[in-house]
Amino acid sequence: MKKTYFLLAAAFLVLSAFKATAPLLKYEHFKSIKVPEPSDIAFDGSGQVLYVVSDNGILYECTPEGKVLRRAAFEGMDFEGVEVVGDYIYVADESLRQVHRFDREHLKKDKTWYVPYSGGRNKGYESLAFNRTTERFVLITEKDPIVIKELNGDFIPVNEYAFTAARDISGARYHNGYMYLLSDEDRKVFMCHPETYEVIKSWKIEVLNPEGIAFDKDGRLVIAADDLERLYFFGSLPQ
Description:
239 residues, Neuraminidase, 1 helix
């Protein structure tokens, strides 16, 4: 009996420590978005335009609050990641292991790269971001295992890292000198070192099926919920 109490007490302490390292972030409000299954979001440099990709393989241009302004004519298979760099929008198609580039003026696709990965068709690149510290693109597989690939401007792999702090990764974004990773299954946001991807801090979020992560022009966190087709707006993350 004493051994049982000891184990329960130890488990409680471990759980308490875990919770202490991942405080809860509460959202301020949410907006419904008329994009079917929004899987990732990214603001342009001004923060005045939000780009959203859908599981249906469509790229949308929206207002910062998620109102659809226009959509690209090109349709892919399963868009899961989006990033904006300069005059271009980059989109990751998980099933096809492709990255498409669209020009922002016309939302027209002008280039496609194939980035091979041997995992399951639905366990390919779930996230796409641009790491401004290393000046490299980042592609991250969803799970089993979670692999972070850094790539140059021609989407040729340069470095590769394993990430074991979460059960899955559904989104990624660079902000204020750090890489932020989002987990759908754990419902957590991880702040990571931009060169090693080691976790510095983490937060829990009360969002069902969080798949996209971005920061608006004021540095406030925005999370896209896939199944609910919503955008959740938070305050700035504590540093």
